[in-house]
Amino acid sequence: MEKPIAVVTGAQQGIGLAIAQVLSTRGFYTVLCDLDERALSVAAEAIGDSSGYTLDVSDFAAVERVAAQVEDTLGPIAVLVNNAGINRDRMLHRMSREEWDRVVAVDLTGPFNFMRHVVPRMRERRAGRIINISSASWQGNVGQANYAAAKAGVIGLTKTAAKELAPFHITVNAICPGFIDSPMTRRMAPEAFSAMVAKIPVGRIGTPHDVAKVVAFLASDDASYVTGEVINVGGGMVL
Ligand code: NAD
Predict the structure, then answer these.
(1) How far apart are the first and last CA of the chain?
(2) CA-CA to 200 of 20 to 30 Å: which in 13, 53, 167, 237?
């Protein structure tokens, strides 16, 4: 593969798809990882110079297999974007153990799994970029104890990895989207959706491309001295 390879999780729709599209226009071969084989192949075909891998990011062994397969068949992973995420919102006093476990497994253990299997080869090459998608909710948001805890965990993971990997020229940063127009937010009740948009100082909902362009910056040479940072992409919104 002549182009550098960028792996993007949760890339069949929403913010992940926009990240893959923007990285592709910036010269990367993109590897899309997600749950649905058909949606992935449609996305990969639309992007071009791209392949889709079906996997659940919470499955340690599956991530190990895919990371090895990408490296062995396509080439070295230059950029890893941990974007896959879910929410299962409910007030803490009603939240089930399953709702807690699943959100932590996908949103926090997923990024760990990918980093665990991609970082050893990045260390050997002494090069790499890791961008983790957290959320403005990490600071606490009513009805999102599971999601906020997982997304706060992503920031701890990011900052620790940034310190461990800085001597190896690997940067690790997190992005906190605010309220972005995607299938995740479109599942909300229309009144709750409008109430969130009303809280955004710039006066509009964010687009997946608003987030993707910041990912592209962090993946670029321009960001080689930026590591361990948490960048809000939320139009000034404070939850
Ligand atoms: P989305 O639901 O539209 O897309 C998420 C993608 O992740 C989907 O394609 C889904 O299939 C995939 N995914 C879910 N579980 C997976 C698993 N176990 N393994 C592999 N893939 C899996 O959501 P989005 O709005 O595009 O969100 C993308 C990321 O941005 C998430 O991490 C989300 O928490 C974060 N985020 C979104 C917003 C927002 O306002 N939309 C705000 C803050 C943070």
Answers:
(1) 43
(2) 13
